């Protein structure tokens, strides 16, 4: 029978044996830990929502004309005949959970973060997967630009703590409803003479959602769009003021950014501020994180009329940039000692020693499989143990053994009755120095 293979566009995260460091579970744990820590420092708290929702949520939230809803969702009928979709993003789910759990009762400002898999049926390529993972943050309740600046700064601080360099922050505004109305008219007037030359996708968007033509990847569309009027020339006084204040705050906070009036974002819920963080280290999939303001969404879901803004960053892309910049991650706890028993009686002794160590928070492992000492030592080296201790009938009879440091091959004699005390001491100095 043929081997069953992993579904297209997905990947395994492994404890060892991955060719690329970004697929090692330690890398994921580290990046997730830093993202959690930094978010907590900014006052954000974790929210976890199901990985599937009623399809309608994404239709109403992400937008009927968005690529995500029209082409990319994993949608199926459950056994009860309901239409269900694997979540393609987190914003709509967080808004649903916020409303459903009446969290508005708990205060006027709400800040959440989430980590988890998202699903989009896209053509897989490097940096683009059908199951990808996002770290996202959402803030509800504050309409002022300080909130926008805080979130952009939070995202950049996460990257900075991870050591990531050479990122570009592109910010724009898509204005409020009034600004977008005025801009849409100006954009349609400009695009109309080029209509026949536009790509099929952009022709379709001309009627339904012309702003999306601005971020078309088609080379001919790009050429046409280059001369398009700028939204920045069509902002209402309120949207203009919001954007100017945001730019001022970013300047004051010394957050470097570029105003890029072609950013519109692919999800329909945005208003005013939108932003993307780009890297030159990922090839075509160069957006490492992105977000924006979506003041109307919670009310649109029949919740309270609260302003909101958020971002999400693709964790695969974060780790791939770290890999390409050769950033190292701190190594997690490895076994301090690896016990290697020779014979049945020694196996029991090693098992009991290992158990005592573990009950005393000393990371250990023991060999229960290998028939020969060299292959047991190989196993100890592979899992990164610092010492090994070989126990046979001689050691059990005499009560004397030796502690071998695997990196130096240096051996020190040790009384078995003293072993746990010595390991406790070694473990506390190892913990202190790591
Ligand atoms: P998004 O731009 O669709 O925004 O996705 C956010 C990030 O997820 C992207 O910048 C990218 O790094 C990563 N990403 C998206 N699709 C894939 C994929 N197929 N493979 C790998 N990585 C991917 C949102 O999802 C919004 N919910 C962000 C947001 C939160 N806006 C407000 N709050």
Short characterization:
By secondary structure, this protein is an alpha+beta fold. Helices cover 38% and strands 20% of the residues.
Query: How many β-strands, per DSSP?
Result: 16
Mean pLDDT value:
94
What count of domains describes the coordinates?
3
The top-level CATH class of the largest domain is Alpha Beta
- Class per helix and strand makeup: alpha+beta
Largest sheet: 8 strands, mixed
Low-confidence stretches: none
- CATH H level of the largest domain: which superfamily? Bira Bifunctional Protein, Domain 2
Helices, strands, pairings?
Layout (H helix, E strand, L loop, with lengths): L24 H17 L3 E2 L5 E3 H7 L5 H6 L2 E3 L5 E4 L4 H10 L9 E10 L11 E10 L4 H17 L5 E7 L3 H15 L8 H9 L10 H8 L10 H16 L5 E2 L13 E7 L7 E7 L3 H4 L7 E7 H10 L12 E5 L2 H16 L4 E3 L6 H10 L4 E5 L1 H6 L1 E6 L5 E5 L3 H15 L1
Parallel strand pairs: 1-5, 7-8, 12-13, 12-14
Antiparallel strand pairs: 2-4, 3-4, 5-6, 6-11, 7-9, 9-10, 10-11, 14-15, 15-16
The structure holds histidyl-adenosine monophosphate.
Characterise the protein shown here.
The protein is built from 15 helices and 16 strands. The protein has 434 residues and is an alpha+beta fold. It folds into 3 domains: 21-176 and 252-324, BirA Bifunctional Protein, domain 2 (2-Layer Sandwich); 179-235, no CATH class; 338-433, Rossmann fold (3-Layer(aba) Sandwich), CATH 3.40.50.800. An 8-stranded mixed β-sheet has the order 1-5-6-11-10-9-7-8. A 5-stranded mixed β-sheet has the order 13-12-14-15-16, sandwiched between helices. Helix 5 packs parallel to helix 9. The protein starts with 24 loop residues before the first helix and ends with a helix. It binds histidyl-adenosine monophosphate (HAM). Histidyl-adenosine monophosphate is lined by residues 89-91, 120, 122, 128-129, 132, 134, 136, 138, 267, 287-292, 310-314, 316-317.
């Amino acid at each position: 029978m043929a081997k069953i293979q992993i579904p297209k566009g997905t990947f395994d995260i492994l404890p060892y044996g991955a060719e690329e460091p970004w697929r090692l579970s330690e890398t994921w744990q580290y990046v997730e830990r830093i993202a959690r820590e930094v978010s907590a420092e900014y006052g954000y708290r974790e929210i976890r929502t199901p990985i599937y929702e009623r399809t309608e949520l994404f239709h109403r939230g992400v937008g009927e004309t968005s690529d995500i809803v029209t082409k990319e969702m994993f949608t199926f009928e459950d056994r009860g005949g309901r239409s269900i979709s694997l979540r393609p993003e987190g914003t709509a789910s967080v808004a649903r959970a916020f409303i459903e759990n009446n969290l508005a009762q708990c205060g006027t400002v709400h800040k959440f973060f989430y980590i988890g898999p998202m699903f989009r049926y896209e053509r897989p390529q490097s940096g683009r997967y059908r199951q990808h993972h996002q770290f996202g943050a959402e803030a509800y309740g504050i309409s002022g630009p300080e909130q926008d600046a805080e979130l952009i700064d939070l995202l950049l601080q996460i990257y900075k703590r991870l050591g990531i360099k050479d990122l570009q922050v592109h910010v724009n505004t898509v204005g409020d409803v009034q600004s977008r109305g005025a801009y849409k008219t100006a954009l349609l007037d400009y695009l109309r003479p080029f209509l026949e030359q536009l790509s099929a996708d952009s022709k379709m968007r001309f009627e339904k959602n012309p702003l999306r033509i601005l971020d078309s990847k088609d080379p001919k569309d790009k050429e046409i769009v280059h001369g398009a009027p700028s939204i920045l020339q069509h902002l209402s006084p309120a949207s203009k003021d919001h954007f100017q204040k945001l730019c001022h705050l970013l300047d004051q906070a010394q957050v470097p950014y570029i105003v890029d009036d072609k950013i519109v974002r692919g999800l329909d819920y945005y208003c005013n501020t939108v932003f993307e963080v780009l890297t030159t280290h990922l090839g075509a999939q160069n957006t490492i994180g992105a977000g924006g303001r979506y003041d109307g969404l919670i009310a649109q879901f029949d919740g309270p009329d609260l302003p909101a803004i958020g971002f999400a960053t693709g964790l695969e892309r974060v780790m791939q940039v770290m890999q390409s910049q050769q950033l190292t991650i701190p190594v997690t706890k490895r076994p301090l000692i690896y016990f290697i028993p020779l014979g049945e009686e020694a196996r029991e002794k090693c098992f009991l020693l290992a158990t005592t160590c573990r009950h005393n928070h000393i990371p250990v492992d023991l060999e229960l499989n290998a028939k020969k000492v060299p292959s047991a030592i190989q196993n100890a080296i592979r899992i990164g143990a610092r010492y090994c201790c070989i126990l046979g009938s001689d050691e059990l009879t005499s009560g004397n053994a030796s502690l071998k440091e695997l990196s130096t091959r240096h051996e020190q004699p040790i009384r078995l009755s003293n072993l746990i005390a010595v390991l406790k001491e070694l473990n506390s100095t190892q913990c202190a120095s790591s």
